Structures are given as structure tokens and as C-alpha cells.
Amino acid sequence: MKVVLPGGTGQVGAVLDRALTAAGHEVTVLTRRPVRAQDVGWDGVTLGRWAEVVDGSDVVINLAGRSVSCRYTDENLRAMMDSRVDSARVVGEAIAAAARPPRLWLQMSTATIYAHRFDAAHDEETGVMGGSEAGVPDYWAYSVEIARNWERAQAEARTPATRKVALRSAMVMSPDRGGVFDVLSRLVRLGLGGPVAGGAQYVSWIHDADFVRAVEFLIGRDDVEGPVNLASPGPLPHRDFMRALRTAWGVPVGLPATRWMAELGALALRSDTELLLKSRRVVPGRLRAAGFTFGYPEWERSAASLVRRARLGRTASARTGVSRGRVG
Fold first, then answer.
1. CA 84 → CA 19, 81, 105, 217, distances in Å?
2. Which DSSP string do the residues of 173-191 spell out, in sequence order?
3. Residues 63, 8: contact at Cβ < 8 Å?
């Protein structure tokens, strides 16, 4: 199977690239900075020679978009919007122009599209769209608007021969350096992994193995299109999420943080508190209805699995460093 990954150099792209390549598929990554033989350059805005790899491919999985791990300044928010909408639009143009269009276009989206909510979970059928909640910062509505426009760019693309699925993904948990699990784990090991602002806000997440399996599941089906929530069936309050992560790392306590402390921490990390404070209670209604089963439905077991892999990775890196030191 020929798979094209626009924007496939980030954490989620690396997860998919590894898994699909290991499964024997031919994976081409579209990136602004190609460095490998299988990478192809593009700008994420205009059609170019890169579109040739889309023509004749089987599946396009568009992950392109500026990272949300940044300060939510006006400039960064505009960049987040433009990079997502422009890349989805131009991928649609490439598919529309293809003589042999792919049979499936998986477009990354986000669980952030749903409202900040504590009382009930959001599935695709009954979930409430965000943007009009009371008592939250006004700029949170812009994050929802980004998600809406992101999905709209795919939905409006004229690609009648290509099935389209919008992946409303929760946070993908993998031990890769720089990913959300890595960042949270560092806080835990520093003793800072307590609840933030009371910790009642829900965390939606998905284990990287289940994320890959869900993508493969959607590729294998021909009867699922439109928005699909990629999230474990077990979202949980932030306080419980962090407690389980501390347990997995063997750290007995974590310093709790007030809202203003979280603001200071986000400033230091050049990130934004929306990522911590918005209650994302999302469940995979359509995946479960289609018969998908999760290998890691509960966070406690998932956290233990990810910590084991992170420790193995750190050990391997240390051994490699020692080996290189001896050679040098």
C-alpha cells in the first residue's frame, strides 16, 4: 500500500511512519525540510511536483499544521489556522487533480472542537461543539474555529472518488521525545505532577498503539466517512490522570498547581494553559459502533506500558552514548 503523509515529521507522524513502514507499506512524507530519500518537499500551500506522489497513492493522511505547543498569541493563532486550512485545501486540490486519486483521505482534526464540559462525554452524534461556553477565556473559541475550518476545508474539497474521514484526535500518548507524554513525564519526575487548578477537568487521550490500529482499521473499512473521534473510551479527570502517571513512574507525590501557577509554567514552557485547563471529555462512539476494540482502554495500564517503553528508550540511549564515548 502506498501512503502519503503530509506533515509527517512531528510526533504523530513519526508514530505512523514507523508503524506503517514496519508493516511493509511504502510511506512518503511531505515536509518543508526533506532529509531522507523517502521525503518529498512541499510548502503546504501551493500545488507543485509533490502532487505527483499523491497521484497513484492508496491513502493520504494529512497531519500538517503548526504545533499547538506554543504561546497563543494572535500571530501564532493565525499561523495555526492558516497552516491547517491551507494544507487541507491544497491536499484536496492535489487529490482532485490526480488521474488515479487515492481511495481514502484521512485528515487530522482535534477533539478540541468539542465544548469545555464536565457533565457528559462527547461522541460524534451527541457531542456539543465548543465556542460559546460561558466562563472560559474568549480565545478558546478561536481554537474551536480553527478545528471547524480545518474540517470544512476537507469537507468542501471536490474529491468524489476519495472517501474522506476527519480524525478528531485526543492527545496521542507515545514515549517519543517532545511529545505530550514526554513533557508530562518530566514534570512528574521533577515532583511537579500534581493536579492543576483542582484537577476536575477531563483529559482525553489515546495510546499510540491504539491510534495506529484505529488508522489501520479506518483504512480497512469502506463504510466509515466524516468525523471520527480517536480517543480512548476512558477519559478521566486530570487529578486521576496525573495520579496514575505518578504511580507508573514510582513518584509518590506531585506538587499541585493553581491556575496562576499554571500560567507561569506555561509561560516558561512557551505553551498555553488551554492545553491543561480545557475539559476534554471525548469518547469514540463511531469507532466502537464499527467494531473497533481498544488494546489500551484504561489509562493506568496505558501509563505503565508507556513508562516501560520510555525507560527502555532512555537505557538504549545511554548505552549508545557510552558506546560512542568509547569509540571516540
1. 24, 5, 15, 24
2. E---TTSHHHHHHHHHHTT
3. yes
Task: Report whether 290 contacts 221 (CB < 8 A).
Answer: yes
Rounded Cα gap, residues 6 and 107, in angstroms: 10
Cell of 264: 507561569
Strands 202-203 and 226-230: unpaired
Percentage helix, strand, coil, to 5, in the chain?
A: 45, 15, 40
Does this model's pTM top 0.70? My answer is: yes
Any bridge partners for residue 227, and if so which? 166
Sign of the C-alpha dihedral computed for residues 165, 168, 172 and 178 taken in this order: positive
Strand partners, 60: 4, 105
Say what angle helices 238-249 and 180-189 make with each other, to 10 degrees: 70
On whether the CB atoms of residues 37 and 93 are closer than 8 A, the answer is no
Output the CA–CA distances (angstroms, integers) from residue 61 to 51, 119, 232, 309, in the order listed. Answer: 14, 33, 20, 26
Q: Quickly count: other Cβ atoms within 10 Å of residue 263's Cβ.
A: 16
Quick: pLDDT tens for 102-137: 999 999 999 999 999 999 999 999 999 999 999 898
Cβ–Cβ under 8 Å, residues 141 and 274: no
The conformation of residue 38, written as its DSSP 8-state character, comes to: T
- Reading the block at residue 89, the C-alpha cell is 485545501
How far is the C-alpha of 177 from the C-alpha of 264, rounded, in Å?
23
In one letter, which amino acid is 185?
S
Determine the angle formed by the axes of helices 180-189 and 299-327, rounding to 10 degrees: 80
Spatial separation of the C-alpha atoms in residues 325 and 17, rounded to whole Å = 30
Strands 59-62, 104-108: pairing kind: parallel
Residues 194 and 256: beta-carbon distance below 8 Å: yes
Find the range with the poorest average confidence among 36-45, 198-207, 314-323: 314-323
